[in-house]
């Protein structure tokens, strides 16, 4: 078994067989970087939600706000993974106008009926994580096993601490899932 070190802690790789998928949308790359990092930490598959609309620049930013405020439906690319094959789906979004991004809203609507356990994370410049998580819970149709909000203003140490807690919460739930499978 190979150990890795995170923030001064030694973390052993998961030994259970639970499958995790981390899926997220990112306009600027921040949410994607966090999602990829979480996937590595959780030994999970990773998928970035693909959207054919260009959201770069000031016009793209304005489109993001309008889509979020009016909860407009958007088109997204097909998923590469079947969510029904996973034990936990970790879903990430940037906070747009105090709510979930339109591409993540579309992804949740598309996969709602097949979702197993879920965990949520978001990146934000100011605030809005409470309303974002509330909206994601409603869209997913289930309570998350863990949630993590990362604000741009948070220092590196506090950010890493929040991520460590989030990963620990997910791994504890995965251990319970594996124990139930072994007992069955």
UniProtKB/TrEMBL annotation:
InterPro entries: Flavoprotein-like_sf, FMN_Rdtase-like_dom. It comes from the Bacteria. Pfam families: FMN_red (PF03358). This is Flavodoxin. Gene3D superfamilies: 3.40.50.360. GO terms for molecular function: oxidoreductase activity. Residues 19-113 form the NADPH-dependent FMN reductase-like domain.
């Amino acid at each position: 078994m190979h150990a890795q070190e995170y923030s001064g802690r030694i973390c052993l790789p998961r030994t259970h067989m639970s499958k995790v998928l981390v899926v997220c949308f990112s306009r600027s790359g921040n949410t994607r970087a966090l999602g990829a990092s979480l996937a590595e930490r959780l030994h999970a598959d990773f998928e970035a939600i693909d959207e054919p609309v260009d959201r770069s620049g000031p016009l793209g930013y304005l489109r993001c706000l309008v889509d979020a405020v009016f909860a407009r439906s958007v088109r997204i690319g097909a998923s590469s993974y079947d969510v029904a094959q996973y034990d936990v789906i970790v879903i990430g979004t940037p906070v747009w106008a105090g709510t979930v991004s339109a591409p993540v809203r579309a992804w949740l609507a598309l996969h709602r009926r097949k979702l197993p356990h879920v965990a949520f994370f978001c990146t934000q410049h100011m605030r809005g994580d409470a309303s974002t998580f509330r909206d994601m819970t409603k869209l997913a149709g289930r309570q998350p096993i863990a949630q993590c909000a990362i604000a741009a203003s948070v220092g590196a140490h506090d950010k890493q601490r929040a991520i460590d807690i989030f990963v620990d919460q997910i791994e504890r739930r995965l251990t319970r899932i594996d124990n139930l499978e072994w007992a069955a």
